[in-house]
């Protein structure tokens, strides 16, 4: 697989998101053996960047990844995140990027992942209660101690990115970027000015762009704790209207002789050698399909068609989730 550069960190240009193996998606946690085979297959195919977070589960996704990479740690660029679990008793889904919380969080992540260092450690969401300078100072301390190699931010906007980078180099921003979620294109010039890479999460539009959800009944059949059941793009009239986008991606896929998932990933790869999509799957067959997008070439006309896709109806997160995202 070809490589990409996130700051100074070189990775294979398609990564693997492990979240859905334990959290948020239908079937999460139901077949850990297949999830572990999926991570192994990804590594066999040349994937290096494996993405998890303390909040996924919480905790169990890191444990799963830790089991999967046992004996193969040196093949992995291991990325995890802190900042959505407050270890002072307030618990999960609380933003806390205070230095004290980070120092507790990192020890738990290292233990669950079965490693003595994290390659890329992200703040998961900006914490309005903690100046980013304090957070970055604590992360720089972890780098000095050798517990962390590179640091990143997630869903931070331009001002925070600049302030953070002034304290310690930010290697990557991890934010949602895909054919139907394009706002990161406003941040990209700043990332390039500062030499920061972009890790594109939910690059398949939470699976929607692959064309596997075609009817309201398909959404109904999802597990009750599958977050897509309440996502504005998957509900009501928005869902019906957004099907047009899936159809347009399918049309290009038919021209290319690839799958819609591969086209969605190949399009992201055309945007630069500093952008790394981390498609999420818990199935061997799909990690094979997604990783093969490395070899899919789009023509200038196909890229232009994809650039002009019908804009999505509905926010990419719920109102409550958007409250935690900087814009
Ligand atoms: N920083 C953040 O705040 C944040 C937020 C969300 C996600 N993430 C990270 O980004 C990663 C990827 O995002 P995501 O998982 O939310 O969304 P995604 O990659 O856009 O889509 C995942 C969904 O697509 C399905 N899928 C995967 N490959 C497919 C294929 N080839 N054909 C058909 N369906 C396919 C998966 O189902 P199966 O698993 O059943 O294959 C799953 O339902 C996560 O795993 C996580 O590590 C980070």
UniProtKB/TrEMBL annotation:
Signal peptide location: none
Highest taxon of source: Bacteria
Pfam family, one: Aldo_ket_red
GO MF annotation list: oxidoreductase activity
Domain NADP-dependent oxidoreductase: 13-309
Assigned keywords, A-Z: Oxidoreductase
InterPro entries: AKR, Aldo-Keto_reductase, NAD(P)_OxRdtase_dom_sf, NADP_OxRdtase_dom
GO CC terms of this entry: cytoplasm
Coiled-coil regions, chain positions: none
Oxidoreductase listed as a keyword: yes
Name assigned to this protein: Aldo/keto reductase
Lineage: Bacteria, Bacillati, Actinomycetota, Actinomycetes, Micromonosporales
